[in-house]
Amino acid sequence: MKGKDHITGIILAGGKSSRMGQDKALLSFKGKPFIEYAINALQPLASQIVIVSDHKEYDRFGVTRVDDLIKDAGPLAGLYSGLYHSKTENNLVLSCDVPLVDSQLLQQLITEDDPSVDVVQYKSGDKTMPLIALYKKSCIATCSTLLKSGERRLQELTKTLTTKTIILDKDLEHQVININTEHDLNHLRNEFDH
Predict the structure, then answer these.
(1) Nearest to residue 118, comparing CAs of 81, 154, 148?
(2) Which of 55, 183, 184, 187 is deepest in the core (most CB within 10 A)?
(3) CA 101, 94, 168, 3: dihedral to nearest 10 degrees?
(4) pLDDT at 120 exceeding the cut of 90
């Protein structure tokens, strides 16, 4: 079992949010911005939290913010930037648009980790979740190779690496709902804001 001091939390908040039309990380749910939920979920598990984003407004959340090292190259570049700045072997990676994720869900990724794997990710239904996953720092080399070939998707990275996929318990599936559109946001607020 890894101690907190061996884990960095990486929040990917650099996306274009084109379907939402505004910055997803700053959307409000129960009076708090989404990014605060990500920080709160990671805090008990990580010694340091890094937000990957070029937007200076994230500096107000009191955690380290780093710019994307490779601009406009999708989530793969965001992960690359986060791993580049990480000082630990293990890195819990979380996108900023899953406000229902809690520490317990992330803890299971750590529990399921073993030395033979590069990535531990969830699968919900038929969808893998490379944006709610544990990545070893050594993944950075493969990130770099894929980025040079023009790849932007994390799915390609997890296919290339040794990836352990955990089937998410049905009772927990609501935690991994990611909010991409106005419709998703309204659903979230109607279903879970009580």
Answers:
(1) 154
(2) 184
(3) -90
(4) yes
CATH superfamily ID and name for 4-192: Spore Coat Polysaccharide Biosynthesis Protein SpsA; Chain A (3.90.550.10)
Please tell me the distance from the alpha carbon of residue 32 to that of residue 28, in angstroms, as a whole number: 5
Q: Sketch the domain layout of the chain as residue ranges.
A: 4-192
Q: Please report, for residues 7, 137, 185, the alpha-carbon distance to residue 160 in angstroms, rounded to integers and kept in the order given.
A: 23, 15, 33
Q: Does 1 have pLDDT greater than 50?
A: no
pLDDT of 36 > 80? The answer is yes
pTM recorded for the entire structure: 0.94
176 token code pair = 């991994």
Within the chain, how many helices (H) and strands (E) appear? 6, 9
